[in-house]
Amino acid sequence: MLVNPWSLALCLLAGLSLFLLGMASKTALRVMRSWQPASDSARQIGLEAEIWLSSTLVQYGLAFQVISLFLFVLAADHFSGMLAGAMCATGSLLANDYGLPLLAVKGTGIFLYGGWIVFHQLDISSETYPLVRFKYILLLCLLPFVVADAVLLILYLTALQPDIITSCCAIIFDAAPSGTVQNLVGGRHGQGLLLLHYGWAALLFAAGLVAWRRRQAFFYLLYGVGMLLFFGLALTTLVAEISSYIYAMPFHNCPFCMLKKEYGYFGFLLYIPLFFSVFCGVMAMVVELVKSRPGLGRRVAELQRVMVAVSLGALLLYSTLSAWHYLLYLVAGGEG
Amino acid sequence: MKKYFEKQRNLLDYALASLWRRKGKNISVFLVFSLVIFLLASFLFLSRSLQVAAQTTLRQTPEITVQRMVAGRQESMPLTYAERIRGIFGVRRVSPRVWGYHYNEVTGANITVMALAGDPELGREPLAEGAFWQQGEQGRAVIGQGVVKDLDLGGRRTFSFFRDDLTLKSFAVAGIFAPETNILTYDLVLLDIADGRDLFGLADDLATDLLVEVVNPLEIATVARKISERLPDTRVVTRPQIQGTYQAVFSWRSGVAAICLLSALSAFIILAWDKASGMSPEERREISILKILGWQTPDVLQVRFWEGFALSLLAFAAGAILAYVHVGYFQAALFRPVMMGWSVLRPGFDLVPIVQGGDLLLIFCLSVLPYLAATVVPAWRCAAVATDAAMGG
User: Fold this and answer.
1) CB–CB of B243 and A168 under 8 A?
2) CB of B242 within 8 Å of any CB in chain A?
3) Residue numbers in B near A60 (CB within 8 A)
4) How many CB pairs (< 8 A) connect A and B?
5) Burial of A54 (0-12, 13-18, 19+ CB in 10 A)
6) A246 interfaces chain B, CB cutoff of 8 Å
7) For residue A333, what are the contacts with CB-CB under 8 A and spacing of at least 6?
8) Whether residue A145 is found in the same domain as residue A215
9) Tens-digit pLDDT profile for residues B233-258
10) What is the value of ipTM here, to two decimals?
11) Do A318 and A211 belong together in one domain?
């Protein structure tokens, strides 16, 4: 189903991202080959000008990918009207084998590009550009990811077949009106999962506070790993449990419908703090890698503190907002 | 953080002033860009309005329509089939329907004639004048606004149609549908089923198709499957299928249109790239002065970004608003023939432009983002100009 404005826009964005990252990679190759910070040859000066171009290109690429993630979810919702058995975005994503991997690639991509920009900011904060080679190796590693994104997108869209009534033959029937009963993470898990989710969040919060006070690599590591695990747990809980309370329907477990107008765009209030919290928490751990580089020690330490503080704030916001409908249900007995 | 925003504000300030200084060049880019966005947005708004209109229409249709197929063609349906469907659990009601087209040789228009059994008022659209006939009353018709015009009724309230054997059958106009329901009723003549059989010369135990109402919408697919198992010589069409088909068709059409417009867009992008690349000596001097004053390459890049963003956002707003006006007030005069059918009488309803956040994002992605991507490399070439070279030249 390539001939459709949504598919076209998605393909266009994928193409633009490829173009931007491809241009940036050209600089990356040149930097890897002939970067000499001590030299003042014309080539070195040219390269120093070029790194501004490449960082701008990656920033554009990141912005495009964030937009394309939203566009993809909206498009999946739009496609659901044309697919038999698909009642919302979940159904469209499950319509063939490429939907969910594509979503995963797009989601992970945001973390990766964001991480690259953090390293870039660290790099330009020091006058000696200590991370140039490091960040351009990273950039070249990102390129296959963007290619995978584009390939999966094309595969997903071409494999998507709208159900059109044909006058020649008889009936196409939905296997079952699925979609509403479909659950991305399998059955329901009951109160235990909610307990685990909020228990884990509370522990994480404590660990984050300790990391913020002590400023030691070990605690950052603890917090970062805890955050990564929490991300998986939070997504599972969102789909399996929290969504039901938001929709006020026990068997409606779509992770995307809450992004729509019908539910007051509430999903954005959950996903954005969650992504921020996880991203900052994990980055506080990851930048530890470059702490020992000359001239970066103080900057990295400052950055880690800010990251942990932002992450904790976002975590608190996410936990409160995600519990809102559940608490409302307990107190007021559902909608009303 | 505050310092960062202050800096961005100052850069934006500078960018807007710089846009204004090069009015001539920027206005031409703005006009062409607005035009491209206007065309794209018109198509998307139009297709969304048509989709919504089609969904509203379909909300009134019964859940399942059953037609008899003989040799791959639709044939009249014996009423005994209705009894066999009534036995299926979950079916609320089965009603026979007779319908067809009446060709008006004088005006060359096709009029849809539909004849229903039972109480005609049930679930029907509001009337502008008159009333529905009483159940069982014959020779009375409720007609659409387009039919009044087509038959040139004026003040008369009777008309007649030819039967297939060229004898005349007359009707009294019992009522006229309200203009708001034009999308459904513009070319419609609604009759009692006995009148319909009489007009089309159909036997009393036949109907064109059967309308099946289902109690629980989740059971539509199951009931439809059971019907097709019991009556293997029928075609069973469900409402969700029709809705899906409509959406797919409109999406496909606007997709084709979007492809055509993308070529216009890429022409524009090349123009933008070209305009951004050609740097005048004044611009060169300006950037050199900025650099001597202590500006860095990323600052100049940011100014260029703000310029491009402001220009494309303005063009986006202008294009989208014009498209809204085009669809809402001018009934999408430019594209209507492409998106709708080719029937002469049919398109007689008012389009209501419907704007959704998702559609705006879609237009944004198809227009503003390519523009920004295309101007970033030329902007960098400007920004990276070596100061000494520019001042010396």
Assistant:
1) no
2) yes
3) 372-373, 376
4) 129
5) buried
6) no
7) none
8) no
9) 888 888 877 777 777 777 777 788 88
10) 0.81
11) yes
